[in-house]
Design brief:
The protein is mostly beta strands. It has a domain at 25-107: membrane protein fhac (Ubiquitin-like (UB roll), Roll), CATH 3.10.20. Helix content is 10%, strand content 54%. It contains five helices and 23 strands. The strands form four sheets. It has a 16-stranded antiparallel beta sheet with strand order 6-7-8-9-10-11-12-13-14-15-16-19-20-21-22-23, with helices on one face. Strands 2-5-4 form a three-stranded mixed beta sheet. The protein has a two-stranded antiparallel sheet with strand order 1-3. The longest helix is centred in the N-terminal third of the chain and has 16 residues, at 3-18. The chain is globular, with a radius of gyration of 23 Å. Residues 21-26 have low confidence and may be disordered.
Amino acid sequence: MTRPLLAAACLAAALAGVTSPLPAQEIAVSPGETPLGIVDTIIVSGNEKTKTYVILDEMTLKPGSTVTQGAITYDRNRIYSLGLFTKVDVFFDSLGTQRFLFVDVRERWYIIPVPILGFRDGDPKKIYYGAGLLHTNFRGRNQKLYGSAVFGFDPAFSFSFADPLFDRESSTYIATSVSTANVRNRSEVEASLTGDFDERHVDLSGTLGKRFGLFETADISPGVHYVKVSIYRQGRTADPDGTDLYLYATASYNHDTRDLREYSMRGSLAHFYFTKNGFGESAVNFSRFGFDLRTFIPLVTDFSLGFRGHASLVSGSTIPTYARAYYGSSERIRGYYHTVWEGEDLAGGTVELRYLVYDPRTFVFSAIPMPVEFSVWRFGVGLALFCDFGAAWYRHDELQLASFGSGYGAGINFLLPYGAVLRVEYAWDNYGRGQFIVDLRTSI
């Protein structure tokens, strides 16, 4: 299939999917399911450190809800998605005239060393290494503490804290982060003119948000950002002295009904954000708007069809080089996995058919002497057929269908303990060239 035709096919399928998300109200009670009864009381056990409300607040089932097997499975996956437990059992039973929903969890080890090792853009000459330390359940409130240090290519240091339920009565959450990094310029266009140069980044930000019901959140994140380039050229920074120091603020909205976040099989995500960079205190003055729409539609037994459409669009007079959008880093097109495309704007999508060969199951290794937090492991295996497409462009460019790169392929997905997903895939680009891909990635 030629490049325009393949991109058109992926685009049409992705748009058809993301414009028809699965309504949230259909998740708890699916049509055609036999009700098991109406729950009177929910009993949570096994959470020695985690506050009970952290679990209850993620569940669609409440006292007075109609219980179905589909609703039990959905809530079980949502509790897993908290990333706090190695084992979650949910079952419905009656004792006399009372009907109970029992939730039994096995807590995992919460202080996790995170080894960091890789190659930027898949280039063995650009190795980076380091370590981080993550506390996933500080004070038993699902608070996240994370610090990391990275050396080698693009050295960086960061620290962050997030409290997803800072005040339960008002359903507000907070977060803060500070980071510094010395980043090798990603623009091949700029590097071809003066050679490679470095960008020094320092960032400090905070977040205040509110949760509206089970599925919706909205927040605002003000911050301050500092950038200095080692070799100045016009356009690399907004300020002609090669240094930008500016305020910014991001407003975002999320509607998320997905079941298992790292490997969704049903539900949808709608994420929108708007960032204003510069408020008159510096030469920086541009904005960026973006969205990420995903839908996972369950088909016949253990099959699910996933769609994703996303974009990041910029406006303003001068867009510094460091604020450009790229494929080949956080966003990738399988078939062009290590190819870097740059522009001011970016858009793309994915269509993926999933089949769970081995539904995620929990195993207890009691024969091996180890702390109880490490004796429970969860594994699953899935197969996937996929098609990706995307384009990065400058605002003065004429965007055409031929501007989009596209790829397709198949793979095996291993669902590993602690929410990791190992993808082993083979993809072809739109010219028929193939490549193996081995990576740790979560849902599309």
